[in-house]
Amino acid sequence: MSFKLIELSLAFGLFIDGIAQVLFIKSWWGHRIEISNQNQQLLQGCGGYLLAIGAVLLIIFS
């Protein structure tokens, strides 16, 4: 797996996150508040799934 691909994926993710915050600030703010009120175990589970899917995609595309 190429380190350059990991850097590119991280940069793209941060870019998309930044665009969402700049263009849709009110809905993004509401989304962040809604997420912070969720169960911690649910959020950790979702994060684990996203991490696994991201790792698999990086391995497939590298």
Describe the 3D structure:
The protein is mainly α and about 60 residues long. Helices cover about 90% and strands about 0% of the residues. The longest helix has 22 residues.
Rg from alpha-carbon coordinates: 14 Å
β-strand amount: under 5%
Percentage of residues in helical conformation: over 70%
Average residue pLDDT = 79
The helix/strand class is mainly alpha
Number of strands: 0
Reported for the largest beta sheet, the result is:
none
Helix/strand order: HHH
Task: Characterize the quaternary organization of these chains.
Answer: single chain
Short descriptors:
single chain, flat, 3 helices, mainly alpha
Please describe the topology of this protein.
Blueprint: H1 3-23, H2 25-36, H3 40-61
Task: Provide a quick synopsis of the model.
With 62 residues, the chain is an all-alpha fold. Helices cover 89% and strands 0% of the residues. The mean pLDDT is 79.
